[in-house]
Write a structure and sequence with these properties.
Rossmann fold; 4 domains; binds uridine 5'-triphosphate; binds manganese (II) ion; alpha/beta
Length: 481
């Protein structure tokens, strides 16, 4: 039974009767408060002449919440698509009880505020955003990735990059988009992206994406390009010849597979399975030991997705070099010999260095670099992995094949190589775009060139490069753009 003294009279419940404070529009958040307590407090406030809005809209000026977790409350609020959120007071229950006691809306004090949260604008550049591996908008970004890939298969670079950019923006949000209004202030989301999001918000899925996923050409190209050494061009060629499956390819006598593709098919089961962090660490130990047999002062750094803190990857990427400039020249060759002698080298494509500082900045200051590198498939024993191999098949295999990339820059290029190979690909694309568009500088895996000063800017650490670019430093685990 409710306390009859505290229950406001029926007349004062009606919204605009007896309103004393026209400028203050309160909304009580039901989250954490519960509906019955909310109903009671609503009646109480209205009986004292307050306007209490039943729904959270842009008309609200004072939001009252009993939520103690400020960050999750803000995450939720940002997903509501309110334009006026930056102007609203987000208050704890103390403001409400103070106001009830005084019989008027009390002035907002710091102790009434639930976290002072600045609604920072989201940059169009991934290198000005922090993106961890936690993705709050996976339902949208997965859909965008399918669309981007489909455009890639059709050689439509523009829309492909547009969807990759849109996905990257959503990945950086610490909150989940709950309505289209919440995307209004976000960059890189075009009409098409928004239409896809609207479908997903309304139906939980996108029909356009489903159509692509069931498309024969998409499915076949997706399958073919999942083979190590097969890119969209080769995939397309095979598709146009009427081939639809691996057995079609392997049974076709006129098809010549290169060495990489042969290994790709041979180890398909293993290398299409994700590599775990423990497996990456085990490989790090193996390579660390091997490289130190060659030179005691060798430098080995884990890079790629695992450096960004990912739990799983499609390969493991390392940088190997020496502190003495020029001594890195034969490092990869010796390292490959060493792995071969250990009997763990299943495949190796070694590209010798074509790096020449005097030819920089090259016309295409771009993704491909000129450092010595090798693309490997290594044999990893179950016994070498803490906790054992990831996802080991039934029948207890004692080893698996893993893809490993090694790149060997000269030490004075180390910071650029590390930054370039840490990724993500989208982060790298935007670093270069930012350098070019905002700073008149050219950045790639080798160097940073200032077009205004017409000179190269030296760097020994990644922080130096960010500083040259006038960018706030972004940690590797915040580069999962
Ligand atoms: P990966 O393709 O290995 O991606 O390239 P990843 O982020 O580690 O993710 P996984 O492996 O799929 O889990 C790593 C980084 O190395 C750069 C890419 O731009 C990417 O940022 N890279 C790769 C180069 O700069 N040059 C290359 O030849 C290959
Ligand atoms: Mn990788």
């Amino acid at each position: 039974m409710s306390d009859p003294v505290l229950l406001p009279s029926k007349a004062s419940i009606s919204r605009h009767e007896g309103v004393k404070f026209e400028d203050v529009r309160v909304h009580l958040l039901e989250r954490k408060m519960g509906s019955s307590r909310r109903r009671f407090l609503t009646h109480l406030a209205r009986s004292k002449g307050f306007i209490v809005e039943d729904t959270l809209s842009d008309a609200v000026t004072h939001v009252v919440s009993e939520e103690s977790q400020a960050s999750s409350l803000w995450k939720w609020l940002k997903g509501c698509g309110l334009k006026n959120l930056p102007m609203m007071h987000i208050l704890n229950i103390i403001w409400f009880t103070d106001s009830m006691r005084e019989g008027r809306p009390v002035a907002v004090e710091t102790r009434h505020l639930i976290q002072v949260c600045v609604l920072a604008t989201v940059s169009q550049y991934a290198c000005q955003r922090q993106t961890t591996t936690e993705n709050n908008n996976k339902i949208f970004t997965d859909a965008f990735e399918v669309l981007a890939e489909s455009y890639e298969f059709n050689e439509m670079e523009g829309p492909c990059l547009a969807f990759r950019r849109a996905a990257s923006v959503l990945k950086s949000l610490p909150w989940a988009v709950q309505c289209l209004g919440a995307t209004e202030d976000l960059p890189c989301l075009g009409e098409h992206s928004k239409a896809v999001m609207e479908e997903i918000l309304q139906y939980g899925r996108s029909f356009e994406v489903e159509k692509i996923l069931s498309d024969e050409r998409y499915q076949t190209l997706k399958l073919f390009t999942s083979v190590f050494g097969v890119g969209p061009k080769t995939g397309e060629k095979w598709y146009r010849r009427g081939l639809r499956s691996f057995s079609d390819i392997l049974a076709e006598p006129s098809i010549h597979l290169n060495r990489m593709q042969q290994s790709g098919f041979l180890h398909y089961g293993d290398i299409s399975r994700a590599v775990s962090k423990a497996e990456a660490q085990a490989l790090g130990n193996i390579i660390d030991e091997a490289v130190h047999v060659i030179t005691t002062d060798a430098i080995l750094a884990l890079t790629g997705g695992f450096r960004r803190g990912k739990e799983f990857g499609h390969d493991v990427d390392f940088i190997v070099t020496t502190p003495e400039l020029g001594k890195e020249g034969h490092l990869l060759t010796s390292l490959i010999d060493q792995l071969e002698q250990q009997g763990i080298l299943l495949f190796c494509e070694h590209q010798t260095s074509t790096f020449d500082m005097s030819k920089l900045p090259s016309h295409r200051f771009e993704a491909m670099d000129h450092f010595a590198k090798c693309f490997l498939i290594l044999r990893l024993e179950n016994s070498q992995v803490v906790g054992g191999l990831h996802d080991a098949e039934e029948g207890g295999r004692s080893w698996r094949a893993v893809r490993v990339d090694l790149v060997s820059p000269p030490i004075d290029r180390y910071a650029f190589a590390l930054l370039g190979w840490t990724g993500s690909r989208q982060f790298e694309r935007d670093l270069r775009r930012f350098a070019r568009m905002e700073r008149r500088m050219l950045l790639d895996n080798h160097a940073l060139f200032d077009k205004t000063k017409k000179e190269f800017l030296a760097a020994t650490t990644e922080k130096d490069i960010f500083a040259h670019l006038g960018l706030e430093y972004i940690e590797p685990w915040q580069r999962n753009a």
